[in-house]
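Re: pyridoxal-5'-phosphate structure - here you go.
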Amino acid sequence: MSDTKNATIAVRNGIEADKHHGAVVPPIHLSTTYSFADFDTKRDYDYGRSGNPSRDILADTLAKLEHGRKGIVTATGMAAVNLCTQILSPEDTLVIPHDCYGGSYRLFTSLQKRGLLKLVVVDFTTEECYEQIAAAKPKLVWIETPSNPILRLTDIEKVVTASHAVGALVGADNTFLSPALQNPIDLGVDIVVHSTTKYINGHSDVVGGVVITRTEKLGEELAWWANNLGLTGAPFDSYLTLRGIRTLNIRIKQHEENALKVAQYLETSDYVDTVYYPGLESHPQHELAKKQQRGFGGMVSFSIKGTIEDSARFLTSLKQFTLAESLGGVESLICHPATMTHAGMDKAARLEAGVNDTLIRISVGIEDVNDLIDDLDRVFNLTKPGQSASVQSASFDKVQVNQAVPARPAIW
Ligand code: PLP
């Protein structure tokens, strides 16, 4: 494998792809079908679901960035997760984290309910998880590190050792860090998945996913399934995602610099209970983060003092943070996982995963960080979470807050 550095691959891969006109930026190929060169003589491409030049450049770039052999670009991140489950038969066991992304959790548990796989749910932050892997004899072990939204870490090398010892493959969802900050394949993982909707595209204007495999053989098997199931990504989305990748490294640096400052500010606030950011020395897995990551990323979670009403007043008073799901775009987003990203999880499982009613998650953007901190400070002083007097404040009379976490269909 070439030893070209990731930042260079991100900027240059595919730049020389156009052989006809020498276009510097690889063109978008929108055609759904391709002419045969002659009777029974296909060219490189025949039909857009099975192959497309714009999608292939993106797949190749992402495979190189993750140090894998094959990339398969899918229509969404969930299509990528779903694709990985195709290697499992009803008698096979899948081990998953108790706190993985809610959409992945919903997919895995619903496949189990239909008898399409066996499921074992573990807490990868405990030492018992390695024995649980050995006992389950799984075909696939799924990890997500750092996890969403509490930013717990999984020791990738230890999980790989325990899993490979019983013949299991390991799949890692690397969405929260992107290949700019973590390469699970270098640590022994067999399959890496991304929701490219997040940092990889980085501009909140494409929903997409990718699966990258350590071996060509596994990649071919999954590419066959992607075509078979019709999960492959669209050419225009591929074009935009590749454009996003060109600035991935520099964006991530700014996300991280801002996130650390925001996390440090939150740690000093009287209105905050706990701050979750692997870059803080107070994070219980800070050392593990330094060992297996090249940085700490742009996601910060924290719980405020008080109640769900305090959360609502706080979240609806900010000006520089948009109350929205998703993450990884250049703009700062803030969300209330209990009523948004994790609303479809049953309450017991949600609380077990640490998602309580005052937990708040920020996807820290690349704005001037002083504006972000000023906004948080202003709203803390205005809403005073945890101090009941603030409930009387006239400025919040209009805010309608449900007493309980509302039951909503899970859309994530
Ligand atoms: N994995 C993680 C960690 C996510 O956060 C998400 C979406 O939020 C997904 C997978 C699913 O990706 P998509 O929304 O692109 O289908």
